[in-house]
Design goal:
heterodimer; A: 112 residues; 3 helical TM bundles of succinate and fumarate reductases; B: alpha+beta; Ubiquitin-like (UB roll); Fumarate Reductase Iron-sulfur Protein, Chain B, domain 2; 2 domains; two-stranded antiparallel ribbon
């Protein structure tokens, strides 16, 4: 066995990174604007209160985590060469980011 | 002029070392290769590759003051002393400035760098229109010196799996060729997180290419094709 050939994947991840970046480009300015405007608790609460806003911010968080996952995946593929290490690093990154998603949803729906 | 030359004979030396050498040479109008040949005359044990002496064969690629270049077209006068000459990074050293290019050629071969066309061979040649021929400009000029690939950090980390800038430039050269019929298989062969997508757009390849080619742009075109056939 000399060559394993191409896996047929890669472009999907590349697209996921671009799509998630587009979502981040829409949401991040809103958060930054509010952060730098010294808005108080009421303004932040209003931003996350309506159910549709919760859904949109959850989508934003999912895009952020997907973007982070693709980035971590790049780091792992670049620097972790042992097969077992790669599997473990992938599992850890996925578990960590999925945990963040559930945690984020819990926080968002805690706004009342 | 003062030189610091990388010396290593894996059969006898425990570790590589840098040898300080001086040469009485007028740099005006001379290239680095002239100096290296003169240094070899001083110390015959110095090993290096060279052939055409005019930047066409690509055999005398070395790392000079931290940059990959062809010794034969690098003006001596433009180099800062002491001129530090090392073998191309990221490849096993056979001796001194001579590296083992096996991995580089294996990756090159993996993109099937030849025309695939099942049509019966015409009597004289397969014709191209001038615009079709123009698609190959900036691609066919590659001399496979390995300056770009061995300057690429992504290739240093994954030389066995990432094709590298030179191989990918050649892959695009054949995908872009109007006479080639294997674009789909060529794209399949590159649809992989390692083979193509280890390129992070660092662009060391563009900075290193002694022929002024742009592998990063070629990689971008391949990616564009992969995205186009998917969405």
């Amino acid at each position: 066995m000399k060559l394993l050939g191409a896996s047929g994947k890669g472009t999907g991840l590349w697209l996921a990174q671009r799509y998630s970046a587009a979502v981040l480009a829409l949401g991040t300015p809103v958060l930054l604007a509010l952060a730098f405007s010294h808005a108080g608790y009421t303004a932040w609460r209003a931003l996350f209160l309506p159910p549709w806003a919760k859904a949109l911010w959850l989508l934003y968080l999912a895009a952020l985590l997907l973007h982070a996952w693709v980035g971590l995946n790049h780091v792992i593929l670049d620097y972790v060469h042992a097969y077992a290490g790669k599997l473990a690093a992938h599992a850890l990154a996925t578990a960590l980011l999925a945990g963040c998603l559930f945690w984020g949803a819990y926080i968002l729906w805690g706004v009342a | 002029m003062r030189f610091r030359i990388y010396r290593y004979n894996p059969e006898t030396d425990a570790a590589p070392s840098m040898q300080d050498m001086t040469l009485d040479i007028d740099p005006k109008g001379r290239m680095l290769l002239d100096a290296l040949i003169a240094l070899k005359a001083q110390d015959e044990s110095l090993s290096l590759r060279r052939s055409c002496k005019e930047g066409v064969c690509g055999s005398d690629a070395v790392n000079v003051n931290g940059r990959n270049c062809l010794a034969c077209i690098t003006p001596l006068a433009e180099l800062k002393e002491p001129i530090e000459v090392r073998p191309l990074p990221g490849l096993p050293v056979v001796r001194d400035l001579v590296v083992d290019m096996e991995l580089f050629y294996r990756q090159y071969k993996s993109v099937k760098p030849w025309l695939v066309n099942s049509e019966p061979e015409p009597e004289i040649e397969r014709l191209q229109s001038p615009p079709e021929r123009a698609q190959l400009d900036g691609l066919y000029e590659c001399i496979l010196c390995a300056c770009c690939t061995t300057a690429c950090p992504s290739w240093w980390w994954n030389p066995e799996r990432f094709v590298g800038p030179a191989g990918l430039l050649q892959a695009w050269r054949f995908i872009a060729d109007s006479r080639d019929e294997a674009a789909a298989e060529r794209l399949d062969n590159l649809e992989d997180p390692y083979r193509l997508y280890r390129c992070h757009g660092i662009m060391n390849c563009v900075a290193a290419c002694p022929k002024g080619l742009n592998p990063t742009a070629a990689i971008g075109k391949i990616r564009e094709m992969l995205v186009k056939r998917r969405v």
